[in-house]
Amino acid sequence: MAEYSVDIVNITKRFGNLEAVKGVNLKIKHGEIFGILGPNGAGKTTTLNMVLGLLVPSSGHITVEGYDSVKHPEKVKQMIGFMTQETVVESYLTARDNLRIFARLYHVPTAEIEESVNRALAEADLVDFADKPAGTFSGGMQRRLNLVKSMIQEPRVLILDEPTTGLDIQSRVNMWSEIRRLNKKGITIILTTQYLEEADALCDRIAIIDHGKVSAIGTAAELKKIVAKGRVLSVSAAHDDVPALRKLLGTVLGSESAEKDGRIEVQISDRPLYQLRKAAEAIEKAGIDVHEISIRLPTLDDVFIKLTGASFRDTTVEQQSSLTRLRAGV
Hints:
The chain is α/β, with parallel strands linked by helices. 38% of the residues lie in helices and 25% in strands. It is built from 12 helices and 14 strands. The strands form 3 sheets. Strands 6-7-8-3-9-10 form a 6-stranded mixed β-sheet. Strands 2-1-4-5 form a 4-stranded antiparallel β-sheet, covered by helices on one side. Strands 12-13-11-14 form a 4-stranded antiparallel β-sheet, with helices on one face. A hairpin with a 2-residue loop joins β12 (257-260) and β13. α3 crosses α4, α8 (220-227) crosses α11 and α9 (242-253) crosses α10 (272-286). The protein is globular, with a radius of gyration of 23 Å.
């Protein structure tokens, strides 16, 4: 067995004069859930394209379960399952036929296709709907079908590109349970997501990529220590009062403040209750009417903003077009 499930060693990728990936190093352990986060244009999708063997690194190398992505691309593709952000099912075909098609695409031996299809239907809890058109399924059912399609060849590594985007809360929780179940079977999972709480809940370790480089890597707890050892004081007020509130809190607490989603947030490292009382008294004295004031622990969102200078955003046109290339390489 290879030392790492996925070993990415100093890879770069250039497109003409643009260097999209600039020396990324990631060592993903066997059986872990590994999150990759980053703002638009950070190089995440390009990196995953190279892991999948769909793009050749300009320099550096990648191995997946011991196979080099350039020297043995077909072996790598057999080792990896890939689920796109978009739910891709043939709506006019039954769930069974959708799975049969993917079994053939993944070169599952003909004699094993029906067994693989029946196993996938059971894992997706779709046995009773196996012979119904996929277009009649709910969004959650279609997403489960999409997931087991990516698992039809029983890969050792599973890449999930924003697996819960667009799902309602119940379906999202169910998908989290399914991801954990697959991981318990020993499958290494690489997860990208626009929901930072999802990465916090699921991932053993997380890498944040920005400007083509790894900005930070570690457990969620380790990453949160980058922001502050203490707490975050969060205060919201009417829009017209926000500038005055921000200036006031920065002065009174002696810490840099930031505006986020209509709230003013200040890092406080010690004596949180004293800092809260001090802020409240200054706000009352200034006559500013606040909507809410609270103290909370740092979140991955705080880490993301500190490291990248940006809030987590929706996928870009470039990322969406990359999905087409990824699907074409399945």
